[in-house]
Design brief:
Aminopeptidase; 5 helices; globular; binds coenzyme A
């Protein structure tokens, strides 16, 4: 099996074109939300957000956005993640690195995200990484003329998958 090195690097304003192309594609597929360019620029300059480019074999292969880095509650949100070629393990490896960032570097107590119920692939990856489903926000998003629900998932710092990261 081909082992691909996946790493994260901090995104720059110049990365937003790549990020927004991938974001738009996944928005159109119904997997993620999207934001305006001006909002991305503002968030990139905001200490509460962390923008990351996922690199595989040294090339951009996805992105992830964290929010809540300045949270007094030590509650960090994986606001958005997408990889260019799903199903090759890049997202799972990147998620592990995000978990490490959150719990080890940013001292999170809680790491959470939301996911559409129909996004079975993402849910499977999050479950395998130790996230627990904690509820459904029913009909919370109105998009393309219809309401959609979101499942909340989280992992807490004392749970095994988070504790392992501190000793990895
Ligand atoms: C979600 C995402 C980041 C996961 O990253 P990835 O690189 O695709 O993940 P992996 O390749 O490591 O794993 C995919 C897993 O999902 C499983 N899977 C794929 N389709 C599935 C389905 N329909 N139902 C259940 N599991 C599924 C695969 O079998 C694989 O699990 P395995 O490794 O145990 O076999 C990536 O798929 C992605 O960017 N998707 C589009 C955007 C998106 O959905 N973002 C998340 C929004 S919350």
């Amino acid at each position: 099996m081909l082992v691909v090195m996946v790493s994260l690097r901090k995104a720059q304003h110049a990365d937003l074109a790549f990020l927004m192309t991938l974001e738009e594609a996944n928005y159109q597929l119904g997997f993620t939300g999207r934001d305006l360019l001006e909002d991305h620029h503002a968030a990139l300059a905001d200490d509460d957000f962390g923008y990351w480019i996922i690199e595989a074999a040294g090339r951009p292969a996805g992105f992830a956005i964290l929010a809540g880095l300045a949270s007094q509650n030590r509650s960090i949100l994986i606001k958005r993640i997408a990889v260019s070629t799903p199903g090759h393990g890049h997202g799972r490896l990147a998620m592990r690195q995000l978990m490490r960032l959150a719990f080890v570097d940013y001292n999170a107590h809680r790491l959470w995200l939301d996911v559409y119920p129909e996004n079975e692939r993402a849910r499977a990856v999050y479950r395998a990484l130790g996230f627990q489903e904690e509820g459904v926000m029913r009909d919370c998003i109105f998009t393309a003329g219809a309401f959609r629900s979101l499942i909340l998932m989280s992992i807490l710092e004392h749970e095994p998958a988070a504790r392992e990261l501190r000793h990895a």
